[in-house]
Amino acid sequence: MAILEVKGLKVYFHTRNGVVKAVDDVSFSVDSGETLAIVGESGSGKSVTCYSLLDLLPKPPARIEGGTAFFDGEDLLTCSPDRMRHHRCNDIAVIFQDPMTSLNPFLTIGEQLIEPLIYHPDKSLIQSRSKARERAIQLLDEVGIIDPDSRFDCYPHEFSGGMRQRVMIAMALITKPRLLICDEPTTALDVTIQAQILKLIKKLQQTHEVAVIFISHDLGVVAGIADKVLVMCEGTIRETGNTDSIFYRSQNEYTKKLLAAIPSGPKKLESRVKPENLIRVSHLKTHFNDYSKQKIDGKYSQIKAVDDVSLNISRGEILGLVGESGSGKSTLGRSILQLVPNTAGIVNFGADQLTGLSPRQLVPWRRRMQMIFQDPYASLNPRMTVYETLSEPLLYHGLANRENVLSKVSELMDEVGLARGHMRKYPHEFSGGQRQRIAIGRAIATKPEFIIADEPVSALDVTIQAQILDLILDLVESHNLTMMFISHDLSVVRYISDRVMILHQGVIVEEGKTEELWANPQDPYTQNLLRSIPIADPILERARIENI
Amino acid sequence: MRYSHNVYLRFSDSVKLTSSTLFKGIALFGLLMVLTSCGTSENNVATGNRTGTLHWGNGTEPQSLDPQIATGVPEHHIISSVMEGLVGKDRKTLMPIPAVAESWEVSDDLKVYTFHIRKNALWSNGDSHTAHDYVWSWWRALQPALGNLYAYMLFPIDNAQQYYEGEIENFDQVGVKALDDYTLQITLGNPTPYFLQLLDHYSLFPVHQTTIEKFGAADERGTRWTYEGNLVGNGPFSLSDWKINRRIVVEKNPLYWDAENVKLNRIIFYPTENVTTEERMFRAGQLHVTNDIPADKIDVYRTQKNPALHLAPYLGVYFYRVNINTPHLSDRRVRRALAMSIDRESLTRNIVKAGETPAYAITPPGTIGYQPPQELGFDPEGAKQLLADAGYPNGDGFPATEILYNTNEAHKKIAVAIQQMWKKHLNIDIQLLNQEWKVYLASESAGQYQVSRAGWIGDYVDPNNFLDMFLCGGGNNRTGWCNEEYDRLILEVAPAMKSHKERLAIFAKAEKMLLDDMPVLPIYIYASKRLIDPSVKNYDSNLLDQASYKDIYLDGESPVTMQVDK
Amino acid sequence: MKQDSLSQSEIIEEDGSSLWNDAWIKLSKNYLALAGLGILILLCVVSLLTPWIAPYSYEQQNLDLGATAPSLQHWLGTDIFGRDMLTRIMYGGRVSLMVGFIATAVALVIGILWGAIAGFYGGRLDAVMMRIVDILYALPFMIFIVLLMVVFGRNILLLFLAIGAVEWLTMARIVRGQVMSLRNQEFVEAAYSLGLSQWTIIRRHIIPNTLGPVIVYTTLTIPSVMLLEAFLSFLGLGIQPPESSWGLLINYGVETMEEYPWLLIFPGVALSLTLFALNFLGDGLRDALDPRTSKD
Amino acid sequence: MFRFALGRLFQAVPVLLVVITVTFFLVHSAPGGPFDADKAVPPEVLKALEAQYNLDQPMWQQYLSYLGDVVQGDLGPSFKYSGRTVNELIGAGLPTTAELAFYAMLVALGVGITAGVTASMRPNTMQDYIPMSAAMIGICMPSFLLGPLLVLIFGIHLEWLPVSGWGDIPGDKILPSITLGTAYAAYIARLSRGGMLEVLTQDYIRTARAKGLSEPVVIAKHALRGGLIPVVSFLGPAFAGLLGGSFVVETIFQIPGLGRFYVQAAFNRDYTLILGMTVFFSTLIIIFNLLSDMLAIWLNPKLRQEIRGSN
Q: Which SUPFAM superfamilies does UniProt cross-reference here (chain C) (predicted)?
């Protein structure tokens, strides 16, 4: 029997520039104890759909234009604010994507946990603080928080990402809801943590007998967890059906495209590695003062972000650097490029030593080595047009002059696949993928020999991700680039790299030719990492989860 | 399409609720404040009338209540309520009346004064009050280390100046003698017709030796003897409270010799620097008497025929100094032209407004019967001619000239008006330069100015007080003007005159010399401006703007009568 | 590398065009901001033309006329010297607008540079620079003004200097705060990795991104500068009678607000009009200079 | 936290030293001396006075002895208020000014936060425009205009409240507090609106709503804490500004506070009083900035822990 029945839901955004049909005629139903996955890329309307059920959309600009959403025989879209509070408090709970921002940093997690109980809209259901505390601690224990009694009074920043998400889950369950909406609950987490959290959700769903709506862009994750799948794109439903039929027997073009875009398998291109070391790093250390700890003998203790790393990169090679958050992979990249001061060690570019050069002396080298940043939103100056962003390095390094700068910029745009007509637009007018193209354009503008790409596709949708990866491969080919490709995503690294290094807590735990390492990982950490990757195949994925 | 993930928020439907909780807090705070305000509906004036308390706007915070250190008018008001000299002044005519001295004799050569001190005069702590107190007080007043700016008030006394300047060292040679406990004999160097008036000036008031010595050396400045609780005086009131910048309270002194005729129980002096505020305080019934009135308010009170308005001539002159050492101003024709093209009638009527009279001489007319020469009236044509004679026909070639004044709205207004008058009548360019008080003083005494605003308030009613300003090199001259004949008339001839009339004639002659040369441009004679609640009785405006606190009484009951001051 | 200096100058020119061109296009669609701009332009034009269009002389007195309420002869009444208020407000606007804009510009330039440098380099330089700001905050302003006046004489330039000297302090603090949060942004790191000099980064990447709060603060600063000018003029540093400014007119108007309310109301209206025009224009500019606001 | 405060205070020492030094030479080089008066001061009197206040010594000697006194907490005698020490004068004015500043701050916070929060709840509606336009006017409305206006309305015409004084007549503290607080209320309104708007877009607010919390709880418990941090950082400078900027209000309302002393001292060239007040005010500014920083840290659990850790 369906616990939630949505019919013909329409949510439009009324902006100054016209109406955007965020959700257009969406219908679905969820049964008790069932998991419905809503899959789609960013902007597909999957989150808006769910938020509209709980009246969590900002109005204006959002407006619900039509449809019904019956929960227990009551239409959520038209009920009074009081009834809505009642539902939020009793029946429906949400787990949000980013546990970092979704928890109030100013309040202890305990306080946030018990709030729904002590401020319950139904006066008779209000519980005393001590009772609520008991229940919260019991739940914290259940979601796997160690020593819940003392952790109850800690603040969110004192937890790691995975633990925070566990707290979020406990918070969602504390009201004993019948429907749980999980909005990309593992997207912000490392793969190993993701596996744990998914398992936890699955387990809890069974013990608490809740219906789950699971929103995700990651088909691998969905494959293992969902009973039914709903594929959305541009506000409309493209396909709906049970998990196996969607993954194995999809008739829809869009679904097929999504599935095809998932990077899998080994690198397809021939390696062009030349037997010449372009970058040589020996015993590199980058330490920071740890301001959060007490000074000892007048000195701060050190965070060893990069600890005694030695590596070589050959000309033409793509080296994949894999690590989870906090492993020091970004710091290593920045250290090699001399963007952060090195504590010890030597970095050589070709025959020349980079360490010890003054910023002024580094200027000619900067032209020869570049960086692509993870977040295409933050790495572009919001007040500079594409033209300005791309022309700046050209003019600054004397690679173009006033007469030919326009044509040079146009060429660059062609190369990275941007329409020339967009030259005078600002970064915010582009989608994430296009922005990353701009950032890549800026990086190759100076005709560098060496590029460090720091998670260049992590923030992108899967279809876009594939395009950008292909673009990078093309450019490496055509520009004879050497690259260090940093990522947490093992499938992506496998798809692009010639050689892989696994970084853990500032130290390289394993390295080797990509396929060799894949086939035969030696280090337990690497093994665990590889095991944690979700597979976009329901049968394999279910089996994988069982085995963890 | 771009819905950034952080815009999914819902703005409240229950805004009213939230703001109401916040408003509750505010309301509580407001309520607290208002509650404290609901104590009484009676204002100061009404309360004061009931309890015999006079609320007096006193201008600025006094800098000292030591009569031999203090210099200002606000200080004067307070000191004269807590102390008294040998001789007082009639509150209307300003003629000398007995005070601590019940009587006195003057020798035939007008040089020896013998005072008989009341036997019932006491210090406010009960100590007896004798002639020796005066000898000691004046000895103190003449100690250079004390830094008494009014030491010169004692100089008419024989050898006082010599003692002060260190020429003689023995104070016994100074002409002050206590013949016995209650008889004081004073010998003057020259006959000084205004000497009795000086005795009512606070610098000649007696001070209480034991108290002063209790808190420091006799000639030490800034000891705590003038604080509330410490100060011992001999006046109708005694100091009971002094809160800096807030108020000074004096209470009736039961030991005062004339205590039975003192009607007020208490006077509270408020420092009221801001004239506008003071006027509002008066209107709100917080003051009985104000120190001043904003010029623009005077018309309002006048039109209303408001009985509170008290305007009266005041012994002071507002004038411009001209720096004789400025090349183009060294020509006295130029100075006379400047003087003749100021329309003082219009200025006093339209700008200063408080009944000030146009001044054509430096001495206020009517000063103990003295009538100064008045010849340079408003004559733009004559002025133009004079300027042409001096080489500036129609103002051509006249260098740009600056009027210096200290920062003050009233001075500015006058300067603006005169600037325009000179522009209009003489076609010369005038610039205004205002400087902050101390800078202005420094500029003026260093002679770094061309034309400078000035004022002089008489300390005693005698032409000498005005005319000796312009002696050669005198500290208050500052114009660079010097005339030996003038000096001789003021310093030697006038004091030697036998009769009052002859003496005045000499002053008139001297003043004529001054006005012929015009190193100063007299503008108007001051007026005292006060708002006085009709319940204040026995207050009489006089030339020195000096109230007689012992006579004042408050009567809020009697019907308001129109008071006409003049 | 030999082309370096040449190419940098080109960057500057390019920089000038795009953001500001786009801002202008966007501004021209914001009617409130346009109205503000229109009012400001009108005020400036009137100020410029005042000597030719003013109905009366600003210094000609008529003492016997005195202060009169608005009438057909004197639309905005006369002051106590019998001078036409409309004329005086027009002349006062010349002074106030000039002082307001120039002195604010001085404060703006010093404040932005100081704050940007302190915030960008951080560390010891920042500490020293901000301590200097602290010290300047603490010094007795009035003594400082009097001394300035005595040492340099009376000079309108000094007025700008004095006002700039006070107003840049807050500006520097605001900009510093902004810069400190900006300097860790990835696009600054990207610029750094391109090998741009620090100065270029500050100028091209940091400062343009601090414009929002700076503009808002500026629109608040201009009116307060106009009032500060009145205070300084009163102390003798600024302009001297018979010239006047809005601030001085208001100052005087407050004294007589009961007797001659028009002496306060009309200069007050002039100043408020400027204030609101600036506010609308400022908000408009802030939005226009932020490319991100266009599509929401 | 303690060590953090100590460190900051330690940093303040050189700042204070420079302030004292610069001010010392500034005031001594300003034209006009403390004893210049309308009527010429005889040279012998001037000499006696200067000798008494050590003004006849070489400048550096005066400077050093002054520094020595300041270190011992003695700010010297006032030149103008004969017989009063600077410590005594500050002691006399401080309670009043502090009280005034405190009430003004209450007004500023009460009105400012209410207006700011109200406006932030419905941005770009009348509920936003009206309080924010009022704030705009409030910021630019000089207190020399606002004070008299309030006095005329509430003191003279309505006769509700006294027109001047401080603690003399019941209710005389209301108008000055409002006059002084208004400009700051306006600033705080803008700051809290900005802060709230930013916080209200945070994910954790959405989380709180999704939990079924009522809107008042969401605002008061979840949003205010973060939204008011800009206001908290502003409190230090604001309090310093209130203390130092109360001169105009003190003059309008005849309030016996420090502001009047300061300005009078500057006009009188009362060297010791100017210096003393400057030292005092700079110390206060430093302390209040420190306090507001500490409050901001305390409000933020993460910073709080970092500071605690560094102890």
A: MetI-like
